[in-house]
Amino acid sequence: QKEVEQDPGPLSVPEGAIVSLNCTYSNSAFQYFMWYRQYSRKGPELLMYTYSSGNKEDGRFTAQVDKSSKYISLFIRDSQPSDSATYLCAIPKAAGNKLTFGGGTRVLVKP
Amino acid sequence: EAQVTQNPRYLITVTGKKLTVTCSQNMNHEYMSWYRQDPGLGLRQIYYSMNVEVTDKGDVPEGYKVSRKEKRNFPLILESPSPNQTSLYFCASNSRLTGTTYNEQFFGPGTRLTVL
After folding, report:
1. CB pairs below 8 Å between A and B: how many?
2. Of A78, A101, A85, which is closest to residue A25 (Cα–Cα)?
3. Rounded CA gap, B95 and A93, in Å?
4. CA angle B13-B16-B20, nearest 5°?
5. Which residue out of A48, A86, A99 would a mutagenesis test of the B interface target, given it has the greatest number of B Cβ atoms within 10 Å?
6. Which residues contact A13 (CB under 8 A, 6 or more apart)?
7. Cα A49 from Cα A36, distance rounded (Å)
8. Which residues face B73 on adjacent strands?
9. Which residues of B touch A103 (CB under 8 A)?
10. What are the chain B neighbours of A104 within 8 Å (beta carbons)?
């Protein structure tokens, strides 16, 4: 079983729709949960991170963690064509420097 | 501008011909890492370094070498490349963790390597 699993998509939505992305993880000891966004031909960049359970909101983006079910989610409200990218969930290991990534979900927002 | 740079961005080579991909960061970060990205597998860490002269294996270190002689540079060396090392490679850096705060990893633009 992979430590972090993510549906590869692609996920195609019309502009203005809510995008819902999720990952599952296997190790209940994980505390930090992160979402990276990767545009085509670019390196990933950190979008949001959360610590432990709960929600975190940043503009149109909401990150959610449910530690009881080992499930993390990212919601994008009022999606825009500029949100078209691959979204990767990532979890840092105990040492902090090592990131374990999900496989990434490709999102396409159509005008 | 704070950034991680990699060179070359694109490289086509043949099996067995030694190559080096350079990585440099200007943020004075202690930690640096190399990842490879393959379709369906996401990013997997190859090697990481906690500081000068301190390196350790990641998840997929076979066939790769690294060195950290200066804080800003972290080259990735393929002594004898093989076709299964055809991939997209990313270098990343981050500062030392403090307390319970996770520090963001900054990624370079990637190097697309093809081994024939």
Report:
1. 58
2. A101
3. 15
4. 60
5. A99
6. A19, A79, A107, A108, A109, A110
7. 9
8. B24
9. 40-42
10. 42
Q: Spell out the per-residue pLDDT of chain A, length 111, in tens.
A: 778 999 888 999 999 999 999 999 998 888 889 999 999 989 999 999 888 878 899 999 999 999 889 999 999 999 999 999 999 999 887 555 678 899 999 999 999
Nearest-CA distance from B81 to chain A in Å?
23
**C-alpha span between A61 and A107 (Å, rounded):** 14
Per-residue confidence (pLDDT) for residue B102, from 0 to 100? 67
A18: distance to nearest CA of chain B, Å? 24
Q: What count of other Cβ atoms lies within 10 Å of the Cβ of residue A63?
A: 22
Q: In the Cβ-directed half-sphere of B116, how many Cα atoms lie within 13 Å?
A: 4
- Total number of residues shown for chain A: 111
Give the H/E segment covering residue A18. none
CB contact under 8 A, A97 and B109: no
Q: Which amino acid is at A1?
A: Q
**Which 8-state DSSP code applies to residue B102?**
P
A61 and A87 Cβ atoms separated by less than 8 Å: no
Q: What angle do CA A90, B110, B52 make, to 5 degrees?
A: 80
